[in-house]
Each structure stands twice: as structure tokens, then as C-alpha cells.
Q: What sequence folds into this?
């Protein structure tokens, strides 16, 4: 995995040092920087140095700003984490009730409306929805700021105001995907034999629903929520750009534009690791929810 | 997975073909029947009709569009929608309707190219991995897993950073992102078909691997792949728009929906139509591909409904 990350980033053409120095520089500075960054070494040597340090948490130094990659990422992490968690919250708040209601009354008016809404949510371009929401809520109504980010501790009200729109945009999209999963998994659980048995025993509807239906429907929900969270954590680049949200996606895009290899490598490695960790957590949650898997 | 028999060493096709010809053929793809069923699903039928219209519009763009895409008219700058310009004009006085029509060609071309690439490469990988199993499966699918672990947009951005912006490279970048999706769908489908009686029967009379794959396995494993194609087209159009929006995809002055949105973003306070109509075009196209995908899934592959809902996003 780390080899692929490294190789991919090395393929990006362009001389990072030339870009970092701008148009005016002398050969001496250039050579000094080249030696300092280690770019004059053979590629295999560069990879081994990078991988060896990465294991210890040292991801190198940005070509552009001179800061360590770890600190650059750490700086962006709170914004990305905040947005991802808020989006998943919005998504689940939409998806679980909507999906469940549709499944309980299949082919009813509610179900049809929910299906159409989720289809719309999946198809709408995020950046377009973001622009339209900014136009309405920041422009015409003037209720919310059009973008930016402040820390929770600095200004709680401003934090919430700035978080709302981006979280709604990404939450609606993820929520639409999750709604469809909730609907189909609740439908499937409803049709299972043990549910019919529970109903035949004369258990109250509510109890059948919470203990026999919802618990079984939870498994696919956990998987798809994990996938969506991984996607959100890897930085929803376009939404971050539109809302000037200083997250990891924006950092990665800037790194591509500036040919800042260490930053790009660090960011992509982090995303890949996040993806693996979330998959692991999903597997662990599975065993916690479903005792059948423990064996 | 375990205990999957390795297929016997491939005999030369000429020697075996004669023997197989007398055996029963794999059922023909029932495309007529499929179309009939699809027509009975009103949503999917409407979506298909809109898409056909879009493709026609993209093919005959020069004739359909009222004005040229880059016809600049300073007097008509930033005109609100009117009879002369139903979608209004942009900051250079270009007719937005014309640019949306011409943008359809760019968006659809990139989408089709990207999905064609992902389909051919991904289906081939999935076919080989699913059919041969064992180490072929392990090697190919582990590689797909690595590719899959990268965030889609960033992988595409990285590919574009390597190859430079432009429509062709955008198609390639999006295509690479969707290769693992097709590989997985194909592999899963092939695994289900591989041990079917007709495949084993054909093998027992000495059919070559090539014949087994092309005549029996692929046609019967195709439905989920077809469904995935429609859904992937939706996401490819969306991805092209996103990449162009970021300035990495189609380059100006070519009209691409994503690029028009990016250009219109700066004028959002004074001229909403600049960003609104290209966005609507993206939305409608993606919606239709998704609805068609859903309809196809209902007709072709009802079992897969849970597995693939919303796949890829």
C-alpha cells in the first residue's frame, strides 16, 4: 500500500523545488534545497527513507511551507473530523426514520415520496446544492455565513452557523444513500421467519420491531455508514472548496497543485489508513451486534 | 471459494469447438424481453427517453444550439432568462442554453469513455479472478482492493495531476477509479455462474476456457454488470462535473457543465442563472441514469437490489 502511495505521487510531473522558489532564484539555493529535501537521491532510497520515518509518525516536511506534514495534517484534522461527524449525524437523522417508515408501509405514498427524495439526493451534484444553499441562506436571507471555519472553543455560535450548511449538503447526499439501505434491510428483516414467529407469539408490535426487526436491520446499516464515514473523512474536496472549509481535502488539492509530494503522500496515506481502520471497526461492531458471528 | 477445481489445461479451440457445437447453447441475452419489461416501468421508460434525447442533442449539438458556444456578444452580457435567451447569458454575453446543449456532448462523451474503460478492464479482471480463482483471484483482487482504498475524487485528482487536465485524461481518471467496482461486481457474478450445470457440462465435453468464458460464463454473469454500467454512468457524469469544477477536467473555453458552474459561481449574487442551469443539466442527466439503473435492476437482477443500492458513492 505504501509503495503504491509513494509511486503514484512520484508520477506527478513538475519540479517541486522550482515551484517553491518561484521565478527568481540562483543555482546555489536550488542545489541546497534539493539536497535538503533529499530529492537528489535515487527513488528507492527516497522511498525507504520516507517509509522508515512514516512508521514512526514522521511524514516529512512540506516543500512549500517548510512545516512538518504531521503538523499540517493535525491542523486540518479538527475541521475534517467536525464536518464528517456532523454530516453522518445529519445523514442518519434523515435516513433511519425515512427508510424505516418507507419499509413499514411499502408502496404507500410515504414510501414513494421517500424513494423519489433519496433518488434526488443521490443525483444532485453536491457543489451545485452548496452554491444554491449559499445563495438562499447567505445571500438572499442573510441568515448564515457563506463559508469559513472557526474553532468550537473560540466561538461556539459561529462554529455552529458555519458548520450547518456544509453538514447539510454532505449529510443529504450520504443520507440518501443510507436511506435506500435502511429501507431494503428493514424490509428484508420484516419478512424473516423469526419475525413472523414473534408476531404469532402475540408480542406487542413495538417489541417485535425493536428486538426482532431493527436489530437485524442494523448490520447493513453499520456497513454502509462506515463506508460513508470513510468517504466523508477523506475530505469532501469539492464541498470544502465551495465553503472555504479548511479540511484535508482542500490540503490535498493544494498539495497536488503545488507538487508538494510529502504533503500529498501524507494525506493519501492517512486516507488509506482511515479506510482500513473504519473497515476494522465495522467488523468489530458486527461481532458486537450479531452474536452469530462470534463463533 | 475453497476447493474450487482448477479448469483443465486449455485445449486448442479448433479441436474442441466441433464437439461442443452439438451441446446446448447458453441462453441468448433476452434483450427484447428486457426492453419490453423496462417499458412497463414508467419511471425507467421516461428516464431512458430523456437520455435518448440528451444523446441526440449531444450528437446534433451544432444544429440544436441556437448560438455558437463561444460566440461573444458584449452588449448581451449577464442577461436574465428571456425569449431570446431562455437560460440567459453569461459574463461574456454567451448564450447559456447553447453552452448547456454543447456541454452535453462533453459531459456524455467523457462519461461514456470513462465507463467503457472501467467496464472493459474491470470486467476482464473480475472475469479472470472469478473464473480461475486461487492465486489469480488473490493477486488481481488484492490489487483492486488497494485501488479501492483510495478516495475516489483524490485518486482521480492524482491521475489528472500526472497526466495533465483535459477531457481525455478526465475520462481515463474516472475510468481508473471505477475499475475496481466493475471487477468486484463481475467477480461476484462469475462466482455464482461458474459452477452451474451447463458450465460443467460444457467443460466435461472439452470446451476451451475461452469458449466457456465467452459463451457460457459472461452472458449469464452479465445482468449485474449491465446494471452497474448505468449507475456508473451517473457517477461518471457527476465526477466529470466535479473535476471540471475544480479546474482539473475540461478546460475553457470548451463548455462543460462543471466548468460553467465554476465560472458562474462568482456571479451567483447578481446572476443566478449562470450556475443554475448547468447544475440542473447535471442533476437531470445523473438522475435519469440512476433511474434507468434502478429499472434495469428490477428487470434483470431483482436479487441484487440490496447489495448495490447507491453503489459507488
A:
Amino acid at each position: 500500500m505504501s509503495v503504491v502511495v509513494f509511486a503514484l505521487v512520484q508520477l506527478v510531473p513538475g519540479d517541486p523545488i522550482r515551484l517553491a522558489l518561484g521565478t527568481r532564484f540562483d543555482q546555489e539555493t536550488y542545489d541546497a534545497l534539493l539536497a535538503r529535501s533529499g530529492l537528489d537521491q535515487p527513488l528507492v532510497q527516497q522511498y525507504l527513507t520516507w517509509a522508515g520515518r512514516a512508521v514512526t509518525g514522521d511524514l516529512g516536511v512540506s516543500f512549500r511551507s517548510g512545516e512538518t506534514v504531521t503538523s499540517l495534517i493535525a491542523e486540518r484534522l479538527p475541521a475534517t473530523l467536525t464536518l464528517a461527524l456532523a454530516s453522518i449525524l445529519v445523514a442518519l437523522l434523515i435516513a433511519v426514520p425515512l427508510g424505516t417508515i418507507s419499509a413499514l408501509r411499502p408502496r404507500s405514498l410515504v414510501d414513494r415520496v421517500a424513494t423519489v427524495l433519496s433518488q434526488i439526493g443521490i443525483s444532485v451534484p453536491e457543489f451545485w446544492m452548496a452554491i444554491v444553499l449559499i445563495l438562499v441562506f447567505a445571500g438572499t436571507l442573510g441568515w448564515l455565513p457563506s463559508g469559513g471555519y472557526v474553532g468550537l472553543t473560540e466561538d461556539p455560535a459561529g462554529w455552529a452557523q458555519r458548520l450547518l450548511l456544509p453538514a447539510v449538503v454532505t449529510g443529504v447526499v450520504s443520507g440518501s444513500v443510507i436511506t435506500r439501505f435502511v429501507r431494503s434491510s428493514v424490509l428484508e428483516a420484516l419478512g424473516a421467519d423469526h419475525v413472523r414467529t414473534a408476531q404469532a407469539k402475540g408480542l406487542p408490535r413495538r417489541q417485535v420491531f425493536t428486538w426482532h426487526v431493527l436489530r437485524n436491520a442494523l448490520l447493513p446499516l453499520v456497513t454502509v455508514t462506515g463506508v460513508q464515514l470513510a468517504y466523508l473523512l477523506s475530505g469532501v474536496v469539492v464541498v470544502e472548496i465551495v465553503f472555504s472549509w479548511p479540511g484535508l481535502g482542500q490540503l490535498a488539492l493544494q498539495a497536488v497543485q503545488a507538487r508538494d509530494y510529502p504533503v500529498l503522500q501524507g494525506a493519501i496515506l492517512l486516507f488509506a489508513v482511515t479506510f482500513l481502520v473504519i473497515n476494522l471497526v465495522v467488523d468489530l461492531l458486527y461481532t458486537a451486534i450479531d452474536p452469530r458471528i462470534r463463533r | 471459494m475453497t476447493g474450487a477445481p482448477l479448469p483443465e489445461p486449455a485445449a486448442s479451440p479448433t479441436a474442441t469447438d466441433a464437439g461442443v457445437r452439438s451441446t446446448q447453447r447458453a441462453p441468448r441475452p433476452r434483450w427484447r424481453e428486457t426492453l419490453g419489461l423496462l417499458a412497463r416501468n414508467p419511471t425507467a421508460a421516461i428516464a431512458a427517453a430523456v437520455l435518448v434525447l440528451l444523446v441526440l442533442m449531444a450528437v446534433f449539438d451544432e444544429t440544436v444550439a441556437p448560438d455558437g458556444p463561444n460566440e461573444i456578444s458584449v452588449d448581451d452580457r449577464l442577461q436574465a432568462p428571456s425569449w431570446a435567451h431562455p437560460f440567459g447569458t453569461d459574463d461574456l454575453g454567451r448564450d447559456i442554453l447553447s453552452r448547456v446543449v454543447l456541454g452535453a456532448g462533453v459531459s456524455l462523451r467523457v462519461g461514456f469513455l470513462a465507463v467503457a474503460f472501467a467496464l472493459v478492464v474491470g470486467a476482464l479482471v473480475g472475469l479472470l479472478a472469478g473464473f480461475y480463482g486461487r492465486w489469480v483471484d488473490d493477486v488481481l483482487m488484492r490489487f483492486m482492493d488497494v485501488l479501492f482504498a483510495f478516495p475516489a475524487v483524490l485518486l482521480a485528482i492524482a491521475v489528472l495531476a500526472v497526466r495533465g487536465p483535459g477531457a481525455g485524461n478526465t475520462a481515463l481518471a474516472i475510468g481508473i477509479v471505477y475499475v475496481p467496482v466493475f471487477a468486484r461486481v463481475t467477480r461476484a457474478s462469475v462466482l455464482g455462474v461458474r459452477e452451474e450445470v451447463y458450465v460443467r457440462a460444457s467443460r466435461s465435453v472439452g470446451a476451451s476456457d475461452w469458449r466457456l468464458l465467452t459463451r457460457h460464463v459472461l452472458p449469464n454473469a452479465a445482468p449485474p454488470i449491465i446494471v452497474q454500467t448505468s449507475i456508473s454512468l451517473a457517477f461518471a457524469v457527476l465526477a466529470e462535473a466535479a473535476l471540471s469544477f475544480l479546474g482539473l477536467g475540461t478546460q475553457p473555453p470548451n463548455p462543460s457543465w462543471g466548468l460553467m458552474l465554476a465560472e458562474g459561481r462568482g456571479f451567483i449574487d447578481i446572476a443566478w442563472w449562470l450556475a443554475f442551469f448547468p447544475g440542473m443539466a447535471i442533476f437531470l442527466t445523473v438522475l435519469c441514469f440512476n433511474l434507468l439503473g434502478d429499472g434495469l435492476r428490477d428487470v434483470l437482477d431483482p436479487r441484487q437490489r440490496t447489495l448495490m443500492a447507491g453503489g459507488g458513492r
In short: Residues 23 and 258 of chain B are 53 Å apart (CA to CA).
